[in-house]
Amino acid sequence: MTVADDQNTDALISDDAVELYRSRGFINVPGLLTPEEVAEQLEDAKRQLSREKTELWEEDEGLAMDWVPDAGLRSEVTRRLTFHPKITAVAERLAGAPLRLFKSELFRKPAGGASAPTPLHHDEPSHPIEGRPITLTAWVALVDVPVERGCMSFIPGSHKLVTPKEDDDGMSPLERWPHFAWEERTTVPMRAGDVHFHHARVLHEAGANDTDTTRVSLASIYMDAEAVYRPNFVYTYLFPDDDLGGLKPGDPVRGERFPLARSGA
Ligand SMILES: O=C(O)CCC(=O)C(=O)O
């Protein structure tokens, strides 16, 4: 297995941007998708969102978002996006190691003031995997996502301070690390076709959608190609019926459901 080399990715992302990702834990890469790709993906995403049963992320103030789980397993068009050569090349460059796709989720933040903010969190507790901590998400904007439509904000550098917790019980990051309430955030508005990448430990949140357009995005989560399965409380709570295809603790997470990011095989 080879990591995407500079030759392939220089035109997509500069060394400075890779450094910025590593120091902050996130980076937006503008215009990775063409307008034609965005149009095709958005049409398919809308079809999936109207057809599939979605999972709900509910907060006291309302619905933060709902999503189609494992969207790439349900649609060939979405599957192509999860293995998009530009996205996976940038993901491997940022991670500095070969990656596999762990899962993909098609997100919808409802329009017309019907949504709530997505609360501050990091993603690692919901990944039942261990390995070097290089797991990251590629979040593809399929519509423009200005601040008013609920774009994401990050606490730069928090991925270096957030440490994994044995037997994570789903405690919120602000309960565990109250000082983060007072840290500056960086807010990242995105155009349709932009892709931001965020580290599984970086703290992030998103605003409510106060516009008349639904916020639609695809999040693909890539993990170390050598990651192994480690069940955890949060994943089992969220997805009680998913044993990830019969994996046993300590098994390598690989096979048909978890293809290599660069080849899709
Ligand atoms: O889209 C959002 O509002 C939150 C998404 C998120 O937390 C993630 O992709 O890790």
Automatic annotation (TrEMBL):
InterPro entries: Phytyl_CoA_dOase-like (IPR008775). One of its GO terms (molecular function) is dioxygenase activity. Keywords: Dioxygenase, Oxidoreductase. Pfam families: PhyH. Signal peptide: none annotated. The keyword Nucleotide-binding does not apply. It comes from the Bacteria. This is Phytanoyl-CoA dioxygenase family protein. It comes from Nocardiopsis endophytica. The lineage of its organism: Bacteria, Bacillati, Actinomycetota, Actinomycetes, Streptosporangiales.
